[in-house]
Amino acid sequence: MQLYRYSNTKCFEGWTLKDFHIDENSGVTANIVAVNDETATSTTLDQGSKKCIFAKYIVGCDGPSSVVAKKLQIKFDGLLNLANTKSLLVHAPGLYDHVTNKLGNTHQYQVIRKNFGLAAIVAADPARDLWNFLFLFGKAKTCAPDEVCRQFLGTDNFEIKQNRSWYWNFFIAGEFRKGKRVFLVGDSAHSWPPFGALGGNTSYGDGECYI
User: Fold this and answer.
1) In the chain, alpha helices (H)
2) What is the C-alpha separation between 104 and 20, in angstroms, rounded?
3) Which one of 40, 49, 163, 199 has the minimum C-beta count within 10 Å?
4) pTM for the full predicted model
5) What CATH code is assigned to 84-167?
6) pLDDT digits (tens, 9 = 90+) for 36-50
C-alpha cells in the first residue's frame, strides 16, 4: 500500500494532545506535549516540551478515553463490563518472518491450545517484531503472561512489553460533533471489543488526534 502525504500537512510523532480551545469563527488552538508513549505519566506530560498549534478543525480519533470527547463533555450510552480478558504486547524477534513463511500473512491469527485456551494475535508492528494478543479465552486468561506467550507463540525468545486487563465495552457517543470546528471519529465516538483491530477497548485510550 502506498501512502500519500500532503505537502502542507505536518505530522507530529511522539506528541500528545494536552488541551485545546475553540473559536467558532476562526478555528481551534491546540496545546500538545512531547511524550514517550511507553513511559507517559501525568507528571511527564506536564514537564514535556510544549507546542501550540492552530488549525481550522480538530478531529478526535483518540480512543474511548478521548481528550477531545472529555473536553466537550460528550455523553455516551451503551453497555459496560460485559466480560473481561487480558491483552499482551510482546516483542518476539524473528517470529514474524517464521510465521509468514509457514502460515502466510494475514491480519489476525487465532491459535488454539488443547486444555489451555484460545488467543487472537496480530502483528502489531512487524518491523519491530511486536505482537499483540487481542484477547484470551479459557485457562489462558488466568495463567501467567510468560506461560501464555510460550503456549501461543511457540518460542521462548520473547519479551513482554505490556500486560493489561480490559473489559468488553459497547458504547456510542450521543453526538459526533460540537459546533462546526470539532468532530469525533473512530473509537472516540464508539467502542467495540477489538476482535479484528488494535483499538476499541479501555486499555488503549491514547490514540491519535488529527488537527
Assistant:
1) 42-47, 67-72, 95-103, 145-153
2) 44
3) 49
4) 0.56
5) 3.30.9.10
6) 644 444 444 455 588
